[in-house]
Amino acid sequence: MNLLRDKNLIFGGLYTVDEPHMIERYNRALEGFGLPPTKLEKFDIDMTGFSPEIAEELGDVLYLDPAGINRRFIILTPSQSDLPVVHTFFSNTEDLMVDFFSLNARALYALTIKDVVYGEIEDSVFTVEDIEELLAIEQVEFKISTPTKLLAKAGNLKTMMERLRKEPDAWRNDELLNEMVETVKITGDIRTNTLLPDEVIFRHDTYWTAHFGGIYVFIDEDTTTVIGNPSAPGFRRSRPWQVSYLDINDPKAVYRFLVDSGRIELPRGSWIERTGLLEMRSTKVAMWLARELEPELDFNQAGQGWMKSWVARNAGLVENEGSIPLIAWASAQLSDWSELDMDEINPQHRFVLCRAMPEHKDRFLINRLVSEFLPFDYMMRYIYNKPAFYKEFEKWPESYREFVVEEISRDYLSDRAGYRQQYYH
Questions:
Q1: What is the C-alpha to C-alpha distance for residues 41 and 113, in angstroms, rounded to an integer?
Q2: Which uninterrupted H or E stretch holds 27?
């Protein structure tokens, strides 16, 4: 993992905390969670306040995610809204945090000038022991606190202001007026700088969770679809009248669901030629097969000319795997914008020719699911399915690791949005 750290491919783009007063505030939040303070003089945090260095110091990567549910957060600065989320059990944690930041920007700005904001993204369950408990999560509420009780004091001040407006003789109450004055000294004028977030309840929509080896939950108007391993507790038993269950090891069923629900874009000459996605995947398949056959190969010397030669020399292996011949055939068929009969293609290979529907609101999660069926497409996995990428990375030979890291750094990190726009969106 050191190579990934050095190239900022893991725990990259985080916010560095090194000012004593900010470290002190972070420690107050840790204390609020019942955790010991950090002794570090410098550490990085993500959007939720998770720090890889503090996780290592505590020996607990789940210090902000106990039981993988009701995720904790620590907000030191509104600038965290632009950071990634580097560790979570739920794929929509980042979306929830982004909404919380954007809809409560003024309050969070005012609060973090004076204090640290911390709390939990609380839902209706406290442990996840079967799929039924996942399905029970329909919305979440941000429960927030500050060590100096700013929120409680702001709420109390708001109540006192209401009394002053509505009770005829409240202005004669010296005790009330004195308390308001003292409270304002702490909170400031909440009429112009509100300290109370307005939006704290959010829908818990479509997501992937790390529980039970990885479960996808797609929520539509009339039904919910769960995709995962049938060994997961509650699979096909929780709410069978409402929930459709698909085995993630059944590419035919998963593909059919994505097509029928309008979530996947089928191969068409219009976007295939424009994006160059199939050519890119063909190259990655060749590199992937070469890695399996020749792990000591220097992949940094493997250009397009080498690739074509290697494919020709290993035609039997390439033909048996099937992806490269399929891409060549599909590209020829689509060159005059003809349509392909996908039913004629092996279900395992259909995803080679597809991507998420670019306009669909679930496109990030859909591409994550598609990447499950494309083990060779390390770029897609890095962008949409980092847990799978990191898991595979550990198994690769050193030369292949260096080659992949260099390509991601050069082609993706230099223009993330542009890369996704070209190939996937």
A1: 21
A2: helix 20-32
DSSP code, position 234: T
Q: Please write down the long-range contacts of 32-38, taking CB distance under 8 Å and 24 or more positions apart.
A: 32/118, 32/145, 32/147, 33/63, 33/64, 33/72, 33/118, 35/63
Q: What is the pLDDT of residues 231-276, one digit of tens each?
A: 999 999 999 989 999 999 999 999 999 999 999 999 988 888 889 9
- Paired tokens of 419: 């890369």
Mean pLDDT: which of 203-207, 215-219, 272-276 is highest?
A: 215-219
Residue of 189, 183, 165, 341 whose CA lies nearest to 267: 341
Closest residue by Cα to residue 204 from 288, 144, 134: 134
Nearest to 47 by CA among 1, 7, 99: 99
Q: CA-to-CA distance for 97 and 237, rounded, in angstroms? A: 32
Q: Report the first-to-last Cα separation within the chain, whole angstroms.
A: 29
Looking at the fold, whether 276 and 419 belong to one and the same domain comes out as yes
Phi, psi of 245 (to 5 degrees): -110, 130
Determine, yes or no, domain membership for 173: no
Model confidence, pTM: 0.87
Q: How much of the chain, in percent, has pLDDT values that exceed 90?
A: 62
Task: Tell me how far apart the alpha carbons of residues 49 and 112 are, in angstroms, rounded to a whole number.
Answer: 13
The boundaries of the domain holding residue 106 are 2-148+196-203
Q: Tell which wins on pLDDT, 285 or 162.
A: 285
Backbone angles phi, psi at 5, to 5 degrees: -65, -45
b/e code 8-40 from CB counts within 10 Å (16+ = b): ebbbeebbebeeeebbebbbbbbebeebeebee
Co-location of 125 and 228 in the same domain: no
Query: 3-state DSSP call for residue 156?
Result: helix
How many domains is the chain partitioned into structurally? 3
Pairing state between β 72-75 and 117-122: antiparallel
